[in-house]
Design brief:
Blueprint: H1 2-14, H2 20-34, H3 40-52, H4 57-100, H5 104-131, H6 140-150, H7 156-180
Length: about 180
């Protein structure tokens, strides 16, 4: 099982450009749909927890998944599987980049990759919105958070803290309403 975790997250790590958010569709496909290690609702929780924890987003998801399945050994196997491809690619780039940094073909390739990475990040964002059951009454929350971060320069840490407090208070109000009914 540990090797299966390593192999799965290594494959995710090696075929993904654009960082952790771009990995979400691949992680979801492998972990939820293919292997059924995590339920779809659980995946949404994993993403939320991984975002709020310090460290690399994709590695956090890998660690949580590995730990759920095989405790510490599973967490280590999945974390190494996720990080190793990036490490090897960066190492190769560092060794050979000096020879290609002025190459127009290489520069054009990197310019072409940028829009694809944006799309890779946009797709899971929309899927997360659907999974979170956003509707016309709640859509303002992520929009306001994104605008606060982007336009006003509010730290994402404050947004996470305020969202956590808001969710806690909302849960308290809902539980009191349920008791009253």
């Amino acid at each position: 099982m540990n090797f299966e975790l390593f192999k799965t997250f290594f494959r995710i790590g090696i075929f993904t450009l654009g960082g952790g958010y771009a990995m979400i569709p691949l992680i979801e496909e492998e972990v939820v749909n293919k292997h059924k290690w995590v339920e779809k609702e659980e995946m949404l929780d994993l993403i939320a927890i991984a975002q709020s924890c310090p460290g690399v987003f994709a590695i956090n998801i890998a660690i949580f998944t590995g730990y759920k399945l095989q405790k510490t050994h599973g967490a280590i196997a999945s974390a190494i599987g996720t990080a190793l491809p990036s490490f090897l690619i960066i190492l190769a780039i560092a060794i050979f980049f000096k020879q290609f940094e002025d190459n127009k073909v290489v520069a054009a390739m990197f310019r072409g990759i940028r829009p694809a990475v944006v799309a890779l990040i946009a797709v899971p964002t929309f899927r997360l919105g659907q999974s979170a059951k956003l509707n016309r009454y709640t859509i303002w929350i992520p929009v306001a958070c994104a605008l606060a971060i982007w336009a006003l320069g509010v730290s994402p840490i404050y947004v996470i803290i305020i969202a956590g407090i808001g969710g806690y208070l909302y849960g308290k109000v809902r539980s009191k309403e349920a008791v009253v009914k």
